[in-house]
Every structure is written in C-alpha cells, then in structure tokens.
Amino acid sequence: MRLIVHNMLTCNIKGVINKFPLRIEAEKVIKKEVDFNPDFLRHMLAKIEWKALVDGARSMGYTELPDHAPDTERVESDESFLKKFHHALLELHLEEGSLVCQETGRKFPVDKGVPNMVLREDEV
Amino acid sequence: MSETPPEIADIMRVSSHREVYEPCDDSFALVDALLTDQTNLINHKPNICMEIGCGSGYVITSLILLLKSKLSNIHYLATDTNPLAAKVTTETLEAHGLKADVICTDIASCLETRLAGLVDVMVVNPPYVPTPEYEVGMEGIASSWAGGENGRSVIDRMLPVVDRLLSEKGWFYLVTLSCNYPSEICLMMRKRGFAWRILVQRSTEEENLIILKFWRDGEEVERLEEETISDEFSRSLSLFMRKQ
C-alpha cells in the first residue's frame, strides 16, 4: 500500500466519527522506483491531506517531508520538494503492517501490500 | 522490426485461484468495449482510473495496457471484497510488469469520502447473476457472481457510489445481462444526470451480455417517464444488433 492510497482510506465502521487518517503500524516497508512526473504530482498535491501524508511517511521511516506543504505557486519551481513528495507518495510501499482506526483502535491488516478494509458484520 | 506490444492482458499470464472468478465471456466483452473506446479513452486523458470488483485482474491489466503507450501518468486503483481476488490481481499485474493500487473493500466503502469526484474512468463487471438474496455477500467466489433478485442487488448499491466517485468528466463502463433489466439501470443513471450508450452486445450460450457506457451530460432531469427510457433502450439495442 502506497501513501497515495493511505491518503484516501477512511474507517467506515458504523458510528465512527474520526474516520481519517488511519494510523500506520509498519512491519515491512519496501521502496520501488516510479518515473518522476511533476504534472501528476502538482495535480495530486491539491487533493492530498498534507499532515496525514507527513505522519504516514514518518511512521514508515521517511522523515524528509516538511511540516507544511509549500504554496501551489512556489511548488512549480521547487524540484527538491517535488522529488521528496514523489518519493513519499508513490515509491514507499507498506508491504506488511496494519492501519489503525484512531477512534476504535480497530486494526486493518496490510498483507503483501494489500490493505484489507472489509468490515465484520457487527461493524456495518 | 520490433514486435508490437500486446494491448490487452495475456490470458496465459493471468493468475488464478479456485476461489477467484476466472476471465470469461463477460470479462472479454468488457475488454472489447474498452478496446472499442480506446481512442476516446486516450483523448479523455484520465488522471485516475478504477475498477470495482477486479477478480483475476484481467480487466484492470487490459485497461492499463490499452492506455500505457499513450498516457503515462495515470493512477490506477482496483478493489475487490475477496482478499484472494486482491492477491490474484496483484499477481496478474506483476506478471505483466504493471502496477495498480489494490484494496480489499466492500464496493469502495473505505474510499467513498476521500476519493469522491476524482475518478475519471470507472470499470465494473458486477455480480449480476440472479440468485436467492441470501447468496449475496457470501465469501469467496460467490461474491463474484451472486447478484440477488434480477441480479441487481449489488449493482443497485454500486450506482450511487459510482456517481459519488466519478469526476465531472467521469466515464463509467458496466457489464449487464438482459435479465438485469438494463433499461431500468439506464433510467436510474439518467435520474442522476448521466447519458448512456450500448458499447457491446453479445449473446453466448448462457447469457445475453450488454456493456453500457455512462457519462454526465450536464442536463438536470426532473421528470422522466419510465416508458421513454425503456423505448429508447429497446430502440438502441435493436439498432445495435442490426449493425453487427
């Protein structure tokens, strides 16, 4: 599971208010190189919840992201920032571990890179 | 001379498991529909493409291959409620040297909030086989076909989710059978502001497959006569069959 996906996942257990973000408990993290594509990154930056990305990256051992994302206009020229954003968003993979709902503590397992978000009957 | 790369998934490289639906006539018909629409898809320049119910991974792999040579920066997502299907899809993608983010979830439940309005292309081969209602939502391979009354239980739950996830320019490709009453599905989508078109019609020994494409046409529809859509649907279906 990459952080671009983590940034979209919510806990849908019935009655839960604080659905996002899920806390990452990393057991195995791998890195896979992806082509650098500034246009895609600029498009995604507007959709990304920055703090969730920073915390997610940190829990996977990557601490290079700034606490706050630079302004959209400044991003254009800031290649060093885009490279870090690219790496955190697209190249880090949580292979094994869990995603934890911050409200209920329910753990959703990540097995061979695939998060299992299917709820039990009593959670729907 | 260099060999032209295959533009759809290679069936020999599609992974399998006894609890995961294998590519069959419906999967082939859906991929044929995507092939028919390939030029439009390329000109559409999607940012995010998604498949709900990816099963063996045959369809999402084919979609990626169809677009790959022309568009490089697409984010692909695939979901399935069956963890084994999610695993098999990952293997199929890897066997083709491709990547997509695979998530195990019911329809797209864990993505509905944060992914709303972002998906430009949605592809669905739903569980459409008419079955007793209790078979719907069972684990394993049954989740790939059990569709409840008229095969519509899961489809009808999916339509609002698809509407929510699709962007303003979003397109939706859906496999249906004639016994699913596809004209009713078109009516439901019409009420949500979508236009529709038949892309593929194919009769096999067991089923009469119809692949539909939906897109937002910007028109607010307040009142719609059911008969109008039903007539319109029969008309396009017979026109379509005459052309074949």
Automatic annotation (TrEMBL), chain A:
PANTHER family per the UniProt record, alphabetical: MULTIFUNCTIONAL METHYLTRANSFERASE SUBUNIT TRM112 HOMOLOG B, UPF0315 PROTEIN-RELATED
Protein's UniProt name: Multifunctional methyltransferase subunit TRM112-like protein At1g78190
Family: Belongs to the TRM112 family.
Subunit organization: Interacts with TRM9.
Domain of life: Eukaryota
Gene3D superfamilies membership: 2.20.25.10
CDD domains, A to Z: Trm112-like
UniProtKB/TrEMBL annotation, chain B:
Key word Coiled coil present: no
Keyword Ion transport appears in the UniProt entry: no
Organism lineage string: Eukaryota, Viridiplantae, Streptophyta, Embryophyta, Tracheophyta
Subcellular location(s) per record: Nucleus
Highest taxon in the source lineage: Eukaryota
GO biological process: methylation
Family matches, as InterPro entries: DNA_methylase_N6_adenine_CS (IPR002052), Euk-Arch_PrmC-MTase (IPR052190), PrmC-related (IPR004557), SAM-dependent_MTases_sf (IPR029063), Small_mtfrase_dom (IPR007848)
Name of the protein this chain belongs to: Methyltransferase small domain-containing protein
Record-stated family: Belongs to the eukaryotic/archaeal PrmC-related family.
One of the record's GO cellular component terms: nucleus
Residues annotated as domain Methyltransferase small: 46-130
Keywords carried by this UniProt record: Methyltransferase, Nucleus, S-adenosyl-L-methionine, Transferase
PANTHER family given in the database record: METHYLTRANSFERASE N6AMT1
GO molecular function: S-adenosylmethionine-dependent methyltransferase activity
Organism: Eruca vesicaria subsp. sativa (Garden rocket)
